Amino acid sequence: MSATPREAASEVMDVVPLVMRTIRKLMRRPHTTDLSVPQFRTLSFLNRTGRCSLTDVAEHLGLALPSASTLIDGLVERKLVIRAFDPADRRRVVLGLTSRGHSIILTAIRTTQSQLSELLADLTPAERVTIVQAMQLLSLLFASEREKELTETKLSSSQL
Amino acid sequence: MSATPREAASEVMDVVPLVMRTIRKLMRRPHTTDLSVPQFRTLSFLNRTGRCSLTDVAEHLGLALPSASTLIDGLVERKLVIRAFDPADRRRVVLGLTSRGHSIILTAIRTTQSQLSELLADLTPAERVTIVQAMQLLSLLFASEREKELTETKLSSSQL
DNA sequence: TATTGTTATACTCTATAACTATA
DNA sequence: TATAGTTATAGAGTATAACAATA
After folding, report:
1. Which of A30, A61, B119, B151 is least crowded, fewest Cβ atoms below 10 Å from its Cβ?
2. A12 vs B131: CB contact, 8 Å cut-off?
3. How far apart are CA B30 and CA B107, in angstroms?
4. Beta-ladder partners of B52
5. Rg of chain A's alpha carbons, rounded to an integer?
6. Nearest-CA distance from A79 to chain B in Å?
7. Gap from B76 CA to D12 C1', Å
């Protein structure tokens, strides 16, 4: 099998939106937690990194600052996120999860993974390895510059 | 390397939105054609299938009918799509590309592929094969039931 | 002046509910 | 009555431009 960059690009363009649609619908299910994909990713990021600024969130999601600001508005209103001023630099904002936010994101991660797992369970182990490898390659290619630094650090330290 | 369904699910959940973000930004570039992802996918579908109904489009995109209807509204307003009544069954709508729509989707496909290709050109050929294989697996798993039938027919006929 | 965020404004995406027209 | 589609309404995503507050 050959795969020119163009052929690979064509497959990625066709398939990624398809998978995205399923992921969105799983996360949106009300009996789980009814989060949009960006909301899910924001809470997940805050859960991993602890407290951070609005700029950190915007970079992680690849959003402009005003978009990130309104996104956080919604999460604050739902009492999943706390927004406070940074006493060290009052221009800055410090974001963190509420305990409700923490519990909801854990539930959302667990249930979304479970439901996706059911689909992926139809594949052979070798096929799943192919998928995991492809995801890791794409992750390195498509992460933002800042994320790449973090990821590469993580990878090289885990290889020690 | 092992890959449980859950591990694979976790990777897919993390990486697909990342890739989606890049795809969206490429399609949105004004100097290309400034299409949203659903608009791009709609035009692309019409380009492949020729004339079809609104229900066909909604199924292809995984949207509810009203969502598809407003999506088409925008494309009709931009004169990229023609919407007419089906004389055989006047409840039905017949959708097709205008010549402008046809030329714009060709440009959009070409330029988006080119830009994605540049990223994928950093990989080895073997790594690109991994990605193409993963995309094909995911495509089978995540296509709607109706799309699956079409895809499987296409695959089996191309294997003759 | 440069940086961090917010507000204002304007589209698009997407869903559900209620409706119209046709079969 | 059942089907195909539209309209009404509403909340979220996203961007740019203009602004405010702090450094």
Report:
1. A30
2. yes
3. 12
4. B95
5. 18
6. 24
7. 24
Q: pLDDT tens, B88-147?
A: 999 999 999 999 999 999 999 999 999 999 999 999 999 999 999 999 999 999 886 556
**Alpha-carbon distance A119 to B138, whole Å?**
10
| Calpha distance B1→B12 (Å, rounded) | 17
Using the C1' atom of nucleotide C13, identify the protein residue whose alpha carbon is closest: B67
The pLDDT tens digits for A5-48 are: 999 999 999 999 999 999 999 998 766 688 999 999 999 999 99
Please report the DSSP string for B38-60 in residue order: HHHHHHHHHHHH-SB-HHHHHHH
What mean pLDDT comes out for the span A46-55? 95
Examine the pLDDT at A149 and tell me if it is beyond 60: no
Rounded distance in angstroms from the CA atom of residue A91 to the C1' atom of nucleotide D21: 7
Distances (CA, A) of A4 to A7, A151, B123: 5, 26, 10
Nearest chain B alpha carbon to A132: B8
* pTM of the predicted model as reported, rounded to 2 decimal places: 0.91
Give B29-45 pLDDT, tens digit per residue.
866 689 999 999 999 99
In angstroms, rounded to a whole number, what is the distance separating the alpha carbons of residues A97 and A80?
A: 6
Closest CA to A23 of A119, A102, A97: A119
Number of other residues whose CB lies within 10 A of the CB of residue B39: 22
Q: What is the DSSP letter of A82?
A: E
B92: which nucleotide lies closest, measuring CA to C1'?
A: D4
- Residue numbers in B 33-62, CB below 7 Å of strand D: 53-55
Measured distance CA(B28)–CA(B20) in Å, rounded:
12
DSSP-derived letter for residue B81 is: E
A97 phi and psi, to 5 degrees?
-80, 145
Cα of B121 vs its chain's centroid, Å = 22
